[in-house]
Design a protein that fits this description.
286 residues, alpha/beta, five-stranded mixed β-sheet, 15 helices, 5 strands, globular
């Protein structure tokens, strides 16, 4: 499979080309539309996987890429609230979609519900995912080669956090220039660091699970368990822990459950999930 073959199934979409390249084209070939942005970390994971699948399916569907920063009106037409968001357009209509960076297996399941690879598709090597440690090493080398590129330092801070090096991430974040200190990714990282501080000297996840089972009123254990779950990617389960504290012990530790929920909302890309839990939080507070 050549790069040219893969690219032939992927194209950029803008306001002017949307009608012809997406709506009209979908009458004969399903179009998967990927709403993304250059600053979006999950997009950097999802994008290559979608392109790989477009090549694998050998034209059974085409992948249209919409940069939401330059195509805000187009993103607004689809009601995009968070990125990455992907929609499947077929026969001129939105047939299905999802938000967030799904793993490769779930992407295959999503596509299998609607399209099948065309004959003669060539096997494509699996996408090799960069580990957080590899990302840190790569960015450190890039910064050494181009020390004036401040945006690389923000990328490094994010990579350090993903590698579990919270203290180093915090140091990089503190050293950012003013124009990057207010970047959406930097704001999100501060919230993640605030949550990570709660786990300093905290028991392991399994120990906390045992504690809450043995003593349902151990609010500290519920709090630390919620942070553990959230930072490990199980956002809904983590938010449930904070809501439980808010419901049963609203004023515990100076109203910490509400603070945890607000910090958690700032770290999550899933607008639907955040909206749902904001409403549940409000119903308990007011």
């Amino acid at each position: 499979m050549t790069d040219a073959t893969a690219v032939s199934h992927v194209f950029d979409v803008d306001q002017q080309t949307f009608e012809a390249d997406v709506l009209q084209a979908s009458l004969t070939t399903p179009i998967l539309v990927d709403f993304w942005a250059t600053w979006c970390e999950p997009c950097k994971t999802l994008g290559p996987m979608l392109e790989k699948l477009a090549a694998e399916y050998n034209g059974a569907f085409r992948l249209g890429k919409v940069d939401v920063d330059s195509q805000q009106e187009l993103a607004g037409m689809f009601g995009i609230k968070s990125i990455p968001t992907v929609v499947l357009v077929k026969d001129g209509q939105v047939l299905d979609g999802f938000a967030g960076a799904l793993p490769l297996g779930q992407l295959r399941e999503f596509l299998a519900r609607h399209v099948q690879p065309l004959e003669a598709a060539e096997p494509v090597d699996e996408v090799v995912q960069e580990t957080p440690e590899q990302a840190v090493a790569r960015l450190q080398q890039a910064i050494a080669a181009a020390p004036d590129k401040a945006e690389l330092k923000l990328d490094l801070a994010l990579a350090l956090m993903h590698a579990g090096q919270a203290a180093a991430a915090e140091a990089e974040l503190a050293a950012l220039p003013a124009n990057l200190a207010t970047d959406a990714r930097a704001v999100r990282l501060r919230s993640e660091l605030e949550l990570a501080h709660a786990l300093k000297d905290a028991p392991a996840l399994a120990d906390l699970q045992q504690r809450v089972q043995a003593a349902p009123g151990d609010w500290e254990a519920h709090d630390q368990l919620g942070v553990h779950l959230l930072l490990q990617g199980n956002a809904e389960a983590g938010l449930e822990q904070f809501l439980l504290i808010l419901q049963k012990a609203r004023d515990w530790n100076g109203g910490q459950a509400k603070k945890r929920l607000l910090a958690a909302f700032a770290t999550l890309d899933d607008a639907e999930l955040v909206g749902r839990y904001r409403r549940r939080m409000a119903s308990l507070l007011f």
